[in-house]
From TrEMBL:
Keywords carried by this UniProt record: Membrane, Transmembrane, Transmembrane helix
Membrane spanning residue stretches: 85-106, 112-135, 142-166, 172-192
Species for this entry: Ligilactobacillus salivarius
Record's protein name: DUF1700 domain-containing protein
Length: 201
């Protein structure tokens, strides 16, 4: 094997530490054969063919994250979706041909994170206020129960309604957040697959 190919693959393996040893070995075997068949001799020829080790590793990690998502069931966690989206954006940013798309997707992701953060802060504030009102109503209701029965029961009722509303609304909010994150990740996956099929590096 060409020493330049060996050096290149050793550098590539440093970037692929997230993968299993067997997967890294498969990748090394594939690219060894690919580069030898291509007849490349110098580092410049290798990088012209497959990109720098960093660029290639980002594409490989993005491909593997897409493959791993396909194995999992429908209950993919938002954290997994965000990680996959981030790897795909990095892969698109690493290649000059898809740099504009990567920058656009990064902008979309930053905007989505900003909106999600604003919505999350609002939801947390509203949930906090609802919890405070619920607990206050329960406290006042229990306190007034022995002095003014009607008023105490009224506040207890408001507190119990608040608990019920929170038990219904909080899971719905969580489901909405998970769905939005999943939709963004699926959109980014779609863009990556579309450009990956065209052979854009």
């Amino acid at each position: 094997m060409n020493s330049e190919i060996t050096k290149y693959l050793q550098e590539l393996k440093k970037y692929l530490r997230r993968l299993d040893d067997s997967e890294i070995k498969d990748i090394e075997d594939f690219y060894t054969e690919y580069l030898e068949d291509a007849g490349v001799q110098t580092r410049a020829e290798i990088e012209e063919k497959v990109g720098t080790p960093r660029q290639l590793s980002l594409r490989i990690l993005a491909d593997y994250s897409l493959k791993d998502d396909g194995k999992e069931s429908g209950g993919i966690l938002p954290k997994t979706n965000i990680k996959t989206a981030w790897l795909i954006i990095l892969a698109l940013l690493a290649t000059p041909a898809t740099l504009i798309i990567g920058v656009a997707l990064l902008g979309v992701l930053v905007a989505a994170i900003g909106v999600a953060f604003a919505v999350a802060v609002t939801i947390i504030a509203l949930a906090g206020a609802a919890i405070f009102i619920t607990l206050t109503s329960l406290y006042v209701g229990i306190f007034l129960l022995f002095t003014k029965l009607g008023v105490g029961l009224f506040y207890l009722g408001i507190g119990i309604i608040g608990i019920g509303a929170l038990m219904v609304i909080l899971p719905i909010i969580y489901l909405i957040i998970v769905t939005v994150v999943k939709m963004i990740a699926n959109f980014i996956r779609y863009i990556y697959r579309r450009f990956n099929k065209k052979g854009v590096r």
